């Protein structure tokens, strides 16, 4: 994954305290590393501590500094409540909250069990609600904060066999848009980044199918899949002072796919 390392092009987030949920995933990990390189103190939240430990070295090498890790299951309110107490006892405040957690299950909707549906929706949408509920108090009190949600093009466009994921991301987008209005008077901005086709562990099935890969690339005017660093760049902008008056908006990072409606030749 390539990231622009020119110091002049990075956001200045020195001294800011950031929490990244889903921070051990491909996109979340890249966001955490980029925030750290921009000077922020970064805490990465993950469901299982052993998962964090297994991947931590990769990100420590990238950042030339320390990332703190917080074991937390965003779909479990008890876990989120405990995580917030641990976080605030250590840092006292939060300036940037990045919601990068997410699970996906691909299958026709009639094959979903209710339990499977609830796992996807409970993690992606429920986890967003619970994390915002328990981590935004100090932002409101301090009248300063940035909330950035990683949503999905599936919040707007129908795609076969990911109905639960689409429902959860659509709900997440509308929840955060509503939150942007509710928190605006407290000087807390809430924005979203919607990735297009990004090379991640979650999309590895696409990379393994040549015909599907080729047909997908044909729909992208920039003729390449996105990288996690393309997403972290948008997050850094929204976390910076340059985005002070932006709230309730979604930055689509898709190489022109939605602009061309999937038909780059017009």
Write the layout of secondary structure elements.
Elements: E1 17-21, H1 26-37, E2 41-46, H2 49-63, E3 68-71, H3 77-91, E4 96-99, H4 114-135, H5 137-142, E5 145-150, H6 163-183, E6 188-195, H7 204-207, H8 210-218, H9 228-239, E7 250-253
Parallel strand pairs: 1-2, 1-4, 2-3, 4-5, 5-6, 6-7
Helix pairs in contact: 1-2, 1-9, 3-4, 4-6
Brief overview, please?
This protein is an alpha/beta fold and 266 residues long.
| First-residue to last-residue Cα separation | 30 Å
Strand content: 5-15%
Instruction: Count the E strands.
Output: 7
Query: What CATH architecture would you give?
Result: 3-Layer(aba) Sandwich
Series of H and E elements: EHEHEHEHHEHEHHHE
Provide the spatial order of strands within the biggest beta sheet: 3-2-1-4-5-6-7
**Assigned CATH superfamily:** NAD(P)-binding Rossmann-like Domain
Low-confidence stretches: none
Please write the CATH class name.
Alpha Beta
C-alpha Rg, in Å?
18 Å
What proportion of the residues is helical, as a percent range? 40-55%
Q: What would the principal axes of the Cα set say about the shape?
A: globular
CATH topology call: Rossmann fold
How would you characterize the largest beta sheet? 7 strands, parallel
Number of domains: 1
Helix-and-strand structural type: alpha/beta
Residue-averaged pLDDT: 87
Total helical segments: 9
């Amino acid at each position: 994954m390539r990231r622009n390392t020119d110091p002049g092009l990075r956001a200045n987030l020195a001294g800011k305290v950031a929490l990244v949920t889903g921070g051990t995933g491909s996109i979340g990990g890249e966001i955490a590393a980029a925030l750290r390189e921009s000077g922020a103190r970064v805490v990465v939240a993950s469901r299982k501590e052993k998962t964090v430990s297994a991947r931590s070295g990769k990100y420590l090498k990238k950042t030339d500094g320390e990332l703190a890790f917080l074991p937390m299951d965003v779909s479990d309110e008890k876990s989120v409540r405990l995580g917030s107490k641990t976080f605030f006892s250590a840092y006292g405040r939060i300036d940037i909250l990045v919601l990068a957690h997410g699970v996906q299950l691909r299958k026709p909707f009639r094959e979903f069990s209710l339990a499977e549906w609830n796992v996807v929706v409970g993690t992606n949408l429920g986890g967003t609600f619970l994390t915002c509920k328990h981590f935004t108090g100090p932002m409101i009190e301090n009248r300063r904060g940035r909330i950035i949600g990683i949503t999905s093009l599936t919040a707007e466009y129908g795609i076969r066999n990911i109905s639960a994921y689409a429902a959860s991301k659509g709900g997440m987008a509308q929840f955060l848009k509503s939150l942007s209005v509710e928190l605006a008077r407290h000087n807390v901005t809430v924005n979203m980044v919607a990735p297009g086709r990004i090379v991640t562990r979650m999309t590895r099935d696409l990379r393994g199918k040549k015909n599907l890969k080729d047909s997908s690339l044909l729909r992208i005017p920039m003729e390449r899949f996105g990288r996690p660093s393309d997403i972290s760049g948008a997050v850094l902008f929204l976390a910076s002072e340059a985005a002070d008056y932006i709230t309730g908006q979604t930055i689509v990072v898709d190489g022109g796919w939605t602009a061309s409606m999937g038909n780059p030749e017009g």
